[in-house]
Amino acid sequence: MTQAALIVAHGQPSDPRPAGAALEALAARVEALMPGWSVGAATLAEEGAIARAVAGRQGGVVFPMFMAGGWFTRVQIPKRLAEAGAVGWTVLEPFGCDPLVHDLCVTLVREAGAEQVILAAHGSFKSPAPSDIAFHVAGRIAAETGAEVAAGFIDQEPQLMSLTGRGGICLPFFAAEGGHVNDDIPEALGAAGFTGRILPPVGLDARVPGIVAAAIARGVPVCAGACRWAR
């Protein structure tokens, strides 16, 4: 019997189809690693995408391609599933909470050979969960590579533009490309006088489909309480 999984991401509200197509390509790569599974994809930004993805499926697991747990994973995705009349679906821990993703961030910095690192993350003025995970990852990178690491954010302090006088690399702690990665991060780093290299977002690494497949197979439900990476 084929098991069902659905990868859900936020998407790009201003132009939802390219992000939707990119997520569908990721789902196809994940499915190729998972015999006996059917893996679909949908973004919240694309109208009706979740309803179309779950139509005719009798339950399964939803893998949030988000960097932290919070309102989207605990409230918005279940709400969209309910609106689609979907039953029997379990929302899993999101991508950014996976220790294998944190391992990958350490590996990417090692491969870059940088002595200075900026971990660029979204952050939130409403919830500490996104920054808790980013600070956890930044701490791991520093401890395991010996690099000087600073976490900077788009939506909270310390903001990226405040991280002045730095070179090395910037690793975007994001699941995909989009306005934040392509526009906001370079603009903020430019204002800070950053002289280094901006890496692709961690979610685009070639090892990510294997990480997502392993997470789906483990089936760990999204945390209902405080972020386990809280400082």
Outline the structure in words:
Helices cover 39% and strands 17% of the residues. By secondary structure, it is an alpha/beta fold. The protein has two domains: 3-96 and 206-218, 3-Layer(aba) Sandwich (Rossmann fold), CATH 3.40.50; 99-204, Rossmann fold. The chain has a four-stranded parallel sheet with strand order 2-1-3-4, sandwiched between helices. Strands 6-5-7-8 form a four-stranded parallel sheet, sandwiched between helices. Helix 5 (129-145) links the parallel strand 5 (116-121) and strand 6. The longest helix has 17 residues, at 16-32.
Low-confidence stretches: none
Give me the Rg, rounded.
17 Å
Distance from N terminus to C terminus (CA atoms, Å) equals: 42 Å
Question: Please, what is the oligomeric state?
Answer: single chain
Helix percentage range: 25-40%
How many beta-strand elements? Answer: 8
Question: How many domains, as an integer?
Answer: 2
- CATH topology annotation of the largest domain: Rossmann fold
Mean pLDDT: 93
H/E element order: EHEHEHEHEHEEHEH
CATH class of the largest domain: Alpha Beta
The 3D shape can be described as globular
- Main-sheet strand order equals 2-1-3-4
List keywords for this structure.
231 residues, alpha/beta, Rossmann fold, 2 domains, four-stranded parallel β-sheet, globular
Task: Tell me briefly what this model is.
By secondary structure, the chain is of the alpha/beta class. The chain is built from seven helices and eight strands.
Indicate the topology.
Elements: E1 3-9, H1 16-32, E2 37-43, H2 49-54, E3 60-64, H3 71-83, E4 89-91, H4 99-112, E5 116-121, H5 129-145, E6 148-153, E7 169-172, H6 179-191, E8 197-198, H7 208-218
Parallel strand pairs: 1-2, 1-3, 3-4, 5-6, 5-7, 7-8
